[in-house]
């Protein structure tokens, strides 16, 4: 599949940036502030899913309040259509969207939604019933809309910069799960024997989510756009015809200017359409789609409700969720080791398809295995999820111009979230199978009694 010309092969852009930065200045601008940028991207990724991961991590609180409504599965299923629909709308209109306003709106909505969890709990006095549960679902939907703003917008924006920014952003997303799991262990240990312990832990989570979301608003609005490396890559994208970076450049102190290359050499500012980009990268899109179908068909619903009771007692589900989150985080850093990073397109597809062998492995382990095997399998699920995600999202944008990289980042996130949605729906198949097995068992016992 042929790709468009790499940026480094387009001399017009190089000469334009040389005029702006100077020949020596280009090299400095491409690296100055890089490590700060990587750290900020990690924090921005963390804030992207901290609120929703918090809701999943306190599933024991929601299960206690709403035992009849399968809250772990319902909350996930409520969240997914909104994040998917929002991302699809933005992906279709990606070239016309003000990326800065899109991401800021998303982070502000993350803050308001996390704050809404606290307000809802205070108004209902920690009560159960259908009313508070509907309120929780509405907040989950709002978090989905926020994620639809941010995840695609940030991935597209970072895809036109250095690969380390994308890697760090998605590592931050995984870190949000690991941090919420660690905090959940802490709150459970501290509040387990206290009155209203579950509720206190849940409120602590929501308060921390508010803090992270507000921190992300401030970092993205006032710090990130002023980093020299960020201004360099966005200036480069603007010189290639990108309109999505204009507001961010202005926030960084760079006024938007007409694109001289558009008149001198129009081919340099032309870009592939979304359809052409998707055709050239269908294997990458299929990769992220299949990765998350498999992951969400097991995590968190199956792990929370279908793995039985073991010696760890009420800590068992928390250990499984923590095992996935920590290994997912580790997996997202493994591609930094070049020797083990998967770069072959065929190799990535084979690895992604091979992961489906985990389905029978989880089924038989839940039925016949002990908790040690289940924890190991869960760690393998998370490790492969994180590693393959970063490999795909850092390899796919290589060789494209800035506007195309932004569009491709949005497209890949759309397929990623589509996989999450289908996986969340597929997660119900475990429950249906459980009900069918129970029904068959009851009929068999009834037949034996008759005879």
Considering the chains and any ligands shown, give keywords for the structure.
single chain, 451 residues, mainly alpha, 20 helices, 76% helix, globular, Equilibrative nucleotide transporter 3-like, Eqnu_transpt, transmembrane, membrane, transmembrane helix
Quick structural summary:
Helices cover 76% and strands 0% of the residues. It has 451 residues and is mostly helical. The protein starts with 10 loop residues before the first helix and ends with a helix.
Category by helix and strand content: mainly alpha
Number of strands: 0
Largest sheet: none
Mean pLDDT: 83
Helix-strand topology string:
HHHHHHHHHHHHHHHHHHHH
Count of helical regions: 20
Our estimate of the beta-strand percent is under 5%
Low-confidence stretches: 4-12, 258-267
**Helix percentage:** over 70%
CA(first)-CA(last) distance: 66 Å
Tell me the Rg in angstroms: 23 Å
Shape type:
globular
Which secondary structure elements does this structure contain, and how are they paired or packed?
Blueprint: H1 11-21, H2 23-29, H3 34-57, H4 59-65, H5 71-92, H6 99-124, H7 130-159, H8 163-191, H9 197-223, H10 228-239, H11 246-251, H12 261-264, H13 274-280, H14 282-296, H15 301-305, H16 316-333, H17 345-354, H18 358-368, H19 371-395, H20 402-450
Helix pairs in contact: 1-2, 3-7, 3-8, 3-9, 5-7, 5-20, 6-7, 6-9, 7-8, 7-20, 8-9, 8-16, 8-19, 14-17, 14-19, 14-20, 16-19, 18-19
Pfam families: Nucleoside_tran (PF01733)
InterPro entries: Eqnu_transpt
Transmembrane segments: 35-54, 74-92, 104-123, 129-146, 158-183, 203-224, 284-303, 315-335, 347-366, 372-396, 408-431
């Amino acid at each position: 599949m042929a790709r468009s010309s790499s940026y480094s092969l387009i001399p017009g852009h190089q000469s334009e940036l040389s005029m702006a930065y100077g020949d020596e200045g280009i090299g400095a601008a491409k690296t100055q502030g890089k490590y700060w940028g990587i750290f900020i991207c990690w924090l921005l990724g963390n804030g992207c899913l901290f609120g929703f991961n918090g809701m999943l991590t306190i599933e024991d609180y929601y299960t206690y309040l709403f035992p009849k409504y399968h809250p772990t599965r319902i909350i996930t299923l409520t969240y997914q259509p909104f994040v998917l629909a929002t991302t699809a709308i933005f992906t279709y209109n990606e070239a016309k969207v003000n990326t800065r306003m899109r991401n800021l709106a998303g982070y502000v909505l993350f803050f308001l939604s996390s704050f809404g969890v606290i307000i809802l709990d205070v108004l209902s006095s920690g009560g159960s019933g259908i009313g508070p549960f509907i309120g929780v679902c509405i907040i989950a939907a709002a978090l989905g809309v926020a994620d639809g703003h941010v995840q695609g917008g940030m991935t597209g924006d970072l895809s036109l910069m250095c690969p380390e920014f994308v890697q760090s952003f998605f590592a931050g997303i995984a870190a949000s799960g690991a941090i919420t799991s660690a905090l959940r262990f802490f709150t459970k240990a501290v509040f387990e024997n206290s009155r209203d312990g579950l509720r206190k832990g849940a409120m602590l989570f929501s308060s921390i989510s508010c803090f992270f979301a507000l921190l992300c608003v401030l970092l993205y609005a006032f710090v990130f756009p002023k980093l020299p490396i960020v201004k360099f890559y966005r200036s480069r994208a603007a010189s290639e015809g990108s309109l999505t970076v204009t507001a961010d450049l202005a926030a960084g102190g760079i006024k938007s200017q007409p694109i001289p290359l558009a008149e001198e050499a129009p081919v340099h500012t032309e870009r592939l359409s979304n359809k052409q980009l998707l055709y050239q990268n269908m294997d990458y899109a299929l990769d992220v789609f299949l990765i998350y179908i498999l992951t969400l068909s097991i995590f968190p619903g199956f792990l929370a409700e279908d793995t039985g009771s073991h010696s760890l007692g009420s800590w068992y589900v928390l250990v499984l969720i923590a095992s996935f989150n920590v290994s997912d985080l580790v997996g997202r850093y493994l591609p930094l080791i070049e020797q083990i990073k998967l770069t072959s397109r065929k190799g990535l597809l084979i690895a992604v398809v091979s992961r489906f062998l985990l389905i029978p492995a989880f089924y038989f382990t839940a039925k016949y295995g002990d908790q040690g095997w289940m924890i190991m399998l869960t760690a393998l699920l998370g490790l492969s999820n994180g590693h393959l995600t970063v490999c795909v999202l850092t390899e796919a944008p290589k060789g494209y111009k800035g506007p195309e990289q932004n569009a491709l980042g949005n497209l890949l996130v759309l397929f990623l979230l589509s996989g999450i949605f289908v996986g969340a729906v597929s997660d119900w198949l475990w429950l249906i199978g459980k009900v069918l097995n129970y029904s068959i068992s009851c009929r068999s016992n009834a037949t034996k009694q008759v005879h």
